[in-house]
Amino acid sequence: MGEIATQAGRKALAVGVLVAAGYVLFKLVLGFVTTVAWIAVIAVAVVAVVWALRVL
Q1: Is the whole model's pTM more than 0.70, yes or no?
Q2: How far is CA 29 from the centre of its chain?
Q3: Nearest 10 degrees: CA dihedral of 13, 18, 20, 23?
Q4: pLDDT tens digits, one per residue of 15-33
């Protein structure tokens, strides 16, 4: 009975570790995508300002 409880505990711990690692990885990927999106927005804004100044 004790061995079954130990195995169940180890599996529960492994699931917890996988969930935590998945969460951290998701946050890292989301941060990277957000950073790329902001860089694109800034680049478009700079191009828009340069275009607007040339038109005026």
Answers
A1: no
A2: 3
A3: -160
A4: 999 999 999 999 999 999 9
